[in-house]
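My convention is simple: the sequence line spells out the residues, with the fold written below as integer tokens. I include a record here:
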Amino acid sequence: MTTSSEFIEVADRLEDIIDLYESRHWTDGLPIVPPTVERVEAMIKATGRAGSDVVAVLAPGHGAATVEKIAINAVMAGCKPEYLPVVLAAVEAVLEESFAMHGVLATTMFVGPVVIVNGPIRRRIGMNAKGNALGQGNRANAAIGRALQLVIRNIGEGRPQEVDRATLGNPGKLTYCFAEDEEGSSWEPLSVERGLAPGQSAVTVFAGYGLQGVVDQKSRDPESLSRSYAESLKALSNVKHAPACDALLVVCPEHHRTFRNAGWSKARLYEELYRLCEIPGSDLVAGAKGIAGGGPASLAGKTVNKFRPGGIMIVRAGGDAGMFSGIIGGWSVGGPRGSLPVTKEVKP
């Protein structure tokens, strides 16, 4: 293989290889799969592209993210070759100017890229969109998200306590990737909502953090359930922050059934959530509710929405049992200091 990467001769013991990578700060703290020539070649072959193709230049270190270098990190993360097209699309997405990858790293907020996968590729590579979709246990989900983070670390030089200045971080900065359950949904997939054709495989990246649960086991009508969602959304970041960070709402199957049975489209739910997230300005001024922070006194008498237009995204995922949906908060406030979600087609 013709390569621009450095070849390193290492003893056969796996422990020695892992220790070497750790000593060179090439890992995320977990053991890696050694990126042998054979493994990297198999990974590149799955894309039909040349290893020397430059996908983009990755901030903040301005490293050339070639197909080969991305493949090396994908091998290290535990990817199978058929996962690489998804990883490449995710890398392309985070490098869009509107995603502001440098800012996502440099902010002291908790955020990192969350990857949502749509289209036929989900089933072809065995991704999980059902029970524990946001958790452990599925190789494709875990390895794709981890590969993206390793690319950011090793090619872009986005390392913790260096350019990555998150105060606390979040466990999703190891890996945060899942598929939408399109087959179980009566709503259009996120990728279609964001402009791609039905049947196209795609990734959407969102600068998100953690998971805030929405536990509602009593609501049996969409009006009550949407109010539960809205009140939980209004607490995001800080009850005084409005407009605040964006949010990704992950609707579980049992909650989705309530909306489906009542004939609510996703557009209807969006409309209701934005209406319910209007907040009296008097609740947001400094000192209101006994909280020192807040906006200027001039907000009193006005109404402010918790979210900017388009600041909420909705996907359906999760196991069939349990009335537990979730909110992934973000840093997506737009403008020069924020990040916006980006959707990219996964190319075969």
